[in-house]
Amino acid sequence: xxxxxWMVPLIWAQAxxxxxxxxxxAPLALRRWCGSLTLSxxxxxxxxxxxxxxxxxxxxLLLLALVLxxxxxxxxxxxxxxxxxxxxxxxxxxxxxxxxxxxxxxxLTVLSWTGSQTLSFSDPQGKEDLLxxxxxxxxxxxxxxxxxxxxxxxxxxxxGLSSNLPLLVLATVVIFRASADLLGGGFTPYGAxxxxxxxxxxxxxxxxxxxxxxYRLASLGSxxxxxxxxxxxxxxxxxxxVLLALADGVLLAWVLVELRNAGFGDAGxxxxxxxxxxxxxxxxVLACVAAVPSRYLASAVFLASTxxxxxxxxxxxxxxxxxxxxxxxxxxxxxxxxxIAGIAGAVVWSRGSIGEALRGYVRxxxxxxxxxxxxxxxxxxxxxxxxxxxxxxxxxxxxxTWLLNAADGYAHYATLPVGLxxxxxxxELGERSLPEATLAGADGPGPxxx
Length: 450
Hints:
This protein is about 70% helix and about 0% strand. By secondary structure, it is mostly helical.
């Protein structure tokens, strides 16, 4: 039995005076989120909580756009059907010109998912989880509920790329080589063009990514399952989420740079734009935290709770707060993150600093707030429909040990293109919001071509 296997029942066993049934799905929901970024309901019966959270998040973003733009301009953008068609076409064009990025991302995702399925193919826990999930839900209810939660996390696949171990290893090797060249200094012959200076974040990025790789391998070897591996010191509740955010940020920055360069027609200039990706690292980390805040919240709260079993037993309020954070609180955090998830469209046109990214996001909402709301709404609906239909199709097969994991995996295949399209649309909106007088910078945006 892995480390997390005995902690989850302890966390959800702190409630007094209530039957065990209301919390029966909470441990499963936590494991699915930590293991595959599959947000699901922790409640024992279906509810409309997910869709209300999604609508509340879009309403909050719309309200913010109304404040910065004014009602007339916002509504004009929200209901500009022709404008949405043009934006969709422009985003697809960016993706088409970013063929290398698509090939690497999709190809290594298939490789990573195949390996994960191989390891868990015959695990009897998979069949138990599926029976538990279907005990109180019909197939259409599962499809609808999972679709709603997929719509609440449209960027999960691109903001959590460090879960893709082959891609993480490849990026680590590339950044390490670039960092070694930076530290080596390399002699530049007289008259030869000087190589552009690389950000010092490169020397931070690759050691953090190595630690994440080792942590992932240790988790696989320990049999801890899908839950975060803990059991050492309290500091891991801070260190592990920070390392995950840094690794996610580097990979998201690479995707953003590829999409940005595609607008200038030079997305295929280098095998990996290390310099550009590393320069955007701080802002890209912020974008990941905004897009999937529950990824880091779940790790931090769970790892902290494993160090405080006595306190959880002694303080019912603390135990209830932890259960809420690791259950319904994950969806609440994701809804809040959806309000600022569009910051990725500002980060890519900045020089990477957090302050510049925040100012750029305010500028983006002030210029394109209505279209930003439309992009998040469209991507949420499309991701939800695609994921819901996938669950209905896969789970209609005869019950097997691998079926629930396969449904989660195929749902991610369905939502990955949606997340990439939404990210490309954000890059396009970020470019449109740039001031006309913006000048080309070393690592920042260039003037938009006429």
